[in-house]
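Researcher: Predict the fold of Protein FAR1-RELATED SEQUENCE.
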Amino acid sequence: MVADCFPNSEIADGHPWLEYLKKFRRRWCSLWLRDQFTAGMLTTQASESCNAQVRLFLKPKHDLDLFFIHFSSLLAEKRRKETESDYNGKQSVPYIMLEDSPILQHAAKVFTPDIFNRIQKQYLKTEPYIMETLSDTRDDGMTGYLTYMIEDGERSDERVVLVDISTRTLVCECRLFRTFGVLCRHMIKVMRHLGDFGEASMRSIPDHYILERWTLEARKKVVVDVDGCVGPSANSENDAGIGIAMRYRETTAMLNQLATKLSMAEEKDYNKWMGVLKKVCNEANKALSKTITSEDRRSIPITGLTLKEKSNPRSNGKERYKSMNEKERRRKKRVYRKGMASNEAVTPNNNTQPDDHLSDLDDTIAQW
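Model: Structure tokens for Protein FAR1-RELATED SEQUENCE follow.
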């Protein structure tokens, strides 16, 4: 590249900085990163997106108290959008352009709307592609297929896809699934071909190609950190609270879907299933009331926090904090009292008349 771009320059003979970049090309060149899962994110995309969101709520002039208040608002807003997106994904059905496709029907039931749209775009791009068999079954059980697209009379975007029908495994040269976690158009083309010719196992997406992070049920699981599992299976009291919250979320999601379907059912079916539901709820309440003891109903304590005892604000010799309004009111009272005291100190002279004394008093009041 250097020789082609700088043929008559000193850089063509070698440049230290370019040689340094070439030495570590496996860390930054996209060609060498096709085996790494990046979810389609660039190097600085995560930090830039986070900074853009934080700037909407935080300003440099905020103190520490305002920082935590606005940061809590930021988290609440992100949680609200996540919950709203999760609810819309479960309560709505995405638009399927090819309703006869079993692969798209399966993807619409499993993936979130955004991931389904990405898979549907890859599916629609398979129309102009042509597929041919490269070789029969090899020693390792893989069969090679070549997918290519005819464009302007020439082949373009040629990719080799290896398939193992026994394990429903597909491997493509483009490595889109390894980097993003979504099936590429070359793999979908081979799946459509095999499904149309009698391979029923290829008419749906294999389970090992469904990443849990892209599914509608992803929020039901507990995130595992680097120190180990913190899910509902833990025995400590703090982690037990997480289990209760996860079970509550799963139960409410199931009941919400049932309530939506019952509300749209006919009157006859509604009365029938409502009777069954009431019966099941009564039996469950009776059974659970016997198994759940009073100790199980207690609130789970939060460790690491202690309540600070209230102290007398005047015990340490300091007065309590006063607001600006209270200070202003007290200042006006002091001024008024000083004026009244000065007015009382004014005595009329023997040579003056009462009217003169009243006029002097009025002048003093006006001055204050």
